[in-house]
C-alpha cells in the first residue's frame, strides 16, 4: 500500500528517522519543517496522509489542523506531540486530528498507526455480505439528529460541529440506541482493528462529544458509560429515521 505522505517536523533527526521508516515501507515522503510550508504543499497537492508535529515554527500543528478542517479537507492526520496533558490531547482530537502519539514513541508503533489510518481511508468498495443499515437519511434519537449525507448534527435544534472521528462514533451509536458498544468496537469504527490504537482515544472522543451534545457533560443523559464494558446511546423511546428535507 504505497502512499504520498507529508511529514511536518522541525526536528531534523526525528524527521529523517520518520522518512526512512516510511520509505522503507514503500511510501513517497515529503518532509517540511514548519506549519505554513505544510499547508502550502497540501494545497498544491493533497497527500494521502499528514504526519504532523504539534510544536513547530511559523504555524504549530494545532493551527495546521484547524485550517485544514476549516477548508473542509478530509486528509487523515496523525499528530505527534510532546504535550501529555489530557486537555492538550483532547484539543488535538477536537480540532480534527485522526490519531495522536506522544513523544517519545516507537518508530515501529508509528508505522503501525500509519498503516491503520491508510487502511481505513482506503477501504475497498467490495460488496458487504452483512450490510449496515441504510444511513442515507438522518437518524433521530430523541432531539439528537445525525445526518450522514450532509455530515450534520443537531442537538435540541442547535447545530453541533463534529470532527470526522466523533461523527463516525455518533452514526454507529445512533443506528442502534440502547446497544452497548465496547471500546474495541468503537475503535473499529474509527480506525479498523489494530492493536496499537489505544482505548484512550475512544474515551477522549466520548468526552469531547459530551461537551457538545449533553445539557450537562458531568451528568450525561445521551452518551452513557456502562462501567467495565463501554458506552451506549440512551434510547428515549423508539428511534426513528426522518425523511431528508
TrEMBL record:
Provide the GO MF annotations for this entry.
Answer: phosphorelay response regulator activity; transcription cis-regulatory region binding
Write the protein's name: DNA-binding response regulator
What's an example GO cellular component term for this entry? cytosol
Query: According to the UniProt record, where is the region Disordered?
Result: 120-139
Q: Which InterPro entries match?
A: CheY-like_superfamily (IPR011006), OmpR/PhoB-type_DNA-bd (IPR001867), Sig_transdc_resp-reg_C-effctor (IPR016032), Sig_transdc_resp-reg_receiver (IPR001789), WalR-like (IPR039420), WH-like_DNA-bd_sf (IPR036388)
Q: Where is the Response regulatory domain?
A: 4-118
- One Pfam annotation reads Response_reg
Amino acid at each position: 500500500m504505497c502512499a504520498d505522505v507529508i511529514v511536518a517536523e522541525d526536528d531534523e533527526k526525528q524527521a529523517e528517522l520518520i522518512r526512512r521508516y516510511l520509505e522503507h515501507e514503500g511510501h513517497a515522503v515529503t518532509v517540511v519543517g514548519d506549519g505554513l510550508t505544510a499547508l502550502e504543499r497540501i494545497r498544491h497537492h493533497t497527500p494521502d496522509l499528514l504526519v504532523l508535529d504539534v510544536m513547530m515554527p511559523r504555524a504549530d500543528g494545532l493551527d495546521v489542523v484547524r485550517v485544514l478542517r476549516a477548508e473542509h479537507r478530509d486528509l487523515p492526520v496523525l499528530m505527534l506531540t510532546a504535550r501529555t496533558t489530557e486537555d492538550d490531547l483532547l484539543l488535538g482530537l477536537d480540532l480534527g486530528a485522526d490519531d495522536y502519539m506522544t513523544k517519545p514513541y516507537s518508530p515501529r508503533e508509528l508505522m503501525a498507526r500509519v498503516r491503520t489510518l491508510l487502511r481505513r481511508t482506503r477501504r475497498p468498495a467490495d460488496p458487504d455480505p452483512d450490510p449496515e443499515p441504510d444511513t442515507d437519511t438522518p437518524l433521530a434519537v430523541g432531539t439528537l439528529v445525525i445526518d450522514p449525507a450532509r455530515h450534520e448534527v443537531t442537538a435540541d435544534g442547535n447545530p453541533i460541529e463534529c470532527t470526522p472521528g466523533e461523527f463516525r462514533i455518533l452514526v454507529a451509536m445512533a443506528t442502534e440506541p440502547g446497544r452497548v458498544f465496547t471500546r474495541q468496537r468503537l475503535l473499529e469504527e474509527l480506525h479498523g482493528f489494530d492493536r496499537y490504537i489505544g482505548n484512550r482515544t475512544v474515551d477522549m472522543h466520548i468526552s469531547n462529544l459530551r461537551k457538545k451534545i449533553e445539557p450537562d457533560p458531568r451528568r450525561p443523559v445521551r452518551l452513557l458509560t456502562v462501567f467495565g464494558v463501554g458506552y451506549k446511546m440512551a434510547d428515549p423511546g423508539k428511534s426513528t429515521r426522518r425523511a431528508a428535507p
